[in-house]
Amino acid sequence: MIDFTLSEEQLMIQKLARDFAQKEVAPKIKDNDQKAFFDKNILTKMAELGILGLSIPTKYGGSGGDYISLGLACEELEYVDTSLRVILSVHIGLNSLTLLTWGTEEQKQKYLVPQGKGIKSATFALTEPNAGSDVVAIETKAKKDGNYWILNGEKMWISLADVADHFIIFAWTDQEKRKKRDHSGISCFIVERGLPGLTTATIHGKLGIRAGNTGSISMSDVRVPKENMLGQEGEGFKISMFALDQGRYTVAAGATGLVRACLDASVKYANERKTFGDVIGKHQLVKEMIADMATSYEIAHMLWLRAGWLKNTGQRSTKETSLAKMYACDASERASGNAVQTYGAYGYSDEYPVERFYRNCKGAVIYEGSREIHKLMQADYVLGYRIDKPTRCSLPTPEE
Prior knowledge:
Layout: H1 8-35, H2 41-48, H3 67-80, H4 82-102, H5 105-117, E1 122-125, E2 141-145, E3 148-159, E4 166-172, H6 175-179, E5 186-192, E6 198-202, E7 214-225, E8 229-230, H7 236-270, E9 274-275, E10 278-279, H8 284-312, H9 318-343, H10 354-366, H11 371-383
Parallel strand pairs: 1-4
Antiparallel strand pairs: 2-3, 3-7, 4-5, 5-8, 6-7, 9-10
């Protein structure tokens, strides 16, 4: 039976994330968003509080929290701004949990330990200018040269690209399989900033998440030691799908926090703003929008909790995580639109945060598998076209 009662540790982490976001980020977020400024000090402060090592075992320098704790932190961080949750998505969800599961002990000691302690930040590079949801369309190549792999290619729309220290990068290692679109020709590599031939840049002019860093990674004959291959040769696609399961979970929990932020902001304004002689909260169609936000929040919250519970117990949760991500992101887009509508003309300006919520929500509907991809996945499960097989689990189960 699923028990939704939060433990003392989970409540502590929830409060830690909430207090941090409210005290350290909320006062500056409007200005940082307007200036499209990523405050690198945020990473330092998150590290000091143990947030960057939240779900990394203590033996690898982390805080040892579970998936529910990670979800709670993501919800609280995105309640203030999506850029905060994105940090956990890429540093923990996509990179660190993948390294924890697929890495050798040597790789964990060299890369996971400093990531768990927050000494180093990490990200995940799969998307390219011509490849998003279609993973086998990536063009980055890796050619073996003695004890090295030589990487050439470009990654695009990578969160923390211009600030991260460690990258998980996917590339074709079998060009014949690439011609056949055989995903078993893709491999995965751990790449460090500072290697000759590797350059990064920040993408400007984004619609939303302007206070976060999003960028590109260019590789020109980057020599990566053979021991930096993550998993075995040809396991890159499998590893990327595993990583996306973890990343989508954090996105789902974060989008749920955005729904709650829209709800709280709308309720406050609806009880203050007056039209036709009464506060707008008394008007039926405003009530309808607020009721939809409240319902959406409860559903989204329960969906990510269920996915987190499955992950905590070592069970495969691809279907449940996909559903949670799809629903929460759709709900956040709908909630932010209704929040702007509730505020009327003021919602269309940057005087109130709902305008920022509206811009921030859209990215998550597209990345980590677009809404359309997740709809197809859910339909395939229902129709019986897709049946998941047991797979590796990241966090140690109670039996371990």
